[in-house]
Design a protein that fits this description.
Blueprint lengths: L3 H24 L9 E9 L9 E10 L6 E3 L6 E4 L3 E5 L5 E4 L5 E2 L5 E2 L7 E2 L2 E2 L7 E4 L4 E5 L9 E5 L2 E2 L7 E3 L5 E3 L12 E4 L1 E3 L5 H38 L1
Antiparallel strand pairs: 1-2, 3-18, 4-17, 5-6, 5-14, 7-8, 9-10, 11-12, 12-13, 15-16
Helix pairs in contact: 1-2
Length: 247
């Protein structure tokens, strides 16, 4: 059978995978600090007997779009946004360090500082715990200060400092299956004092909904084209069988 059928079949399969990536991006258009995934296609030659006249299509998640999202002012004391490059260090479920741009921080019933999804935020000595307080202030360098109950407004006590990191070319970040960022070598990244925060603000997703919708439509059209190619391959095979019967 003509390899055209298998080429069209893999093209349809890979188009669906690329569409799933676009769909995931679109679903997170309003997720705080989300970085969209990028899907690229590349061709793979069909090996075997005969002339190399066919190539498979392969979709792959080539990486993530690291451009910053729009800053949204909230005025909430536990909301922070990274200004420029950098990431907030959190503790992943496996106990290792992971990194996020999601700055809608929370304080649980035990005083533990976490992300909105429940991951502990890490400081100089591990997970950050905030004691009972009347006011919390987070500085541009990640320093967390509190005003203890009954104290004057000028009496602020430093509790900890959020660990902020900046990836390097030698040890870049990648997105794992849970959506958290990790270092390529798996080792904790060092704190970077040049990373700054904006308090009382959040960074929105960098997904452009209109662009994502256009990509969804283009993927649907590519899928239809691949299905038509499969139908054409079948018609060609039927015609060839008819000619053979005439002989």
């Amino acid at each position: 059978m003509d390899r055209m059928l298998y080429v069209a079949m893999t093209g349809a399969q890979q188009t669906l995978r690329a569409q799933a990536i676009t769909s995931h991006n679109l679903a997170n258009a309003n997720t705080v600090g989300f970085r969209q995934d990028m899907a690229d296609f590349r061709n793979m030659p069909v090996f075997g007997d005969g002339l190399p006249t066919r190539s498979y299509a392969m979709a792959e998640r080539s990486g993530i779009d690291l451009k910053s999202g729009k800053l949204i002012s909230t005025g909430r004391e536990l909301d922070v946004a990274i200004q420029g490059e950098g990431w907030i260090t959190i503790q992943a479920p496996d106990g290792n360090e992971a990194y996020t741009r999601s700055g809608d921080l929370q304080r649980d019933a035990n005083g533990l500082l976490t992300t909105a999804t429940g991951y502990p935020v890490l400081g100089n000595g591990g997970p950050i715990s905030i004691p009972p307080t009347e006011k919390i202030e987070i500085g541009a360098d990640g320093t967390i200060s509190i005003r203890p109950p009954g104290e004057s407004a000028s009496n602020l006590v430093v509790v900890d400092r959020i660990k902020l990191i900046k990836p390097t070319a030698d040890n870049p970040l990648y997105k794992d299956s849970s959506g958290l960022m990790r270092t390529a070598d798996g080792r904790p990244a060092p704190a970077d004092a040049s990373v700054t925060l904006v308090a009382g603000a959040l960074e929105g997703s960098n997904v452009n909904p209109a662009e994502a919708l256009i990509n969804m439509i283009e993927s649907a059209r590519r899928f239809e084209m691949q299905i038509k190619m499969m139908s054409t391959a079948k018609e060609n095979a039927d015609t060839a069988n008819q000619l053979l019967r005439l002989e």
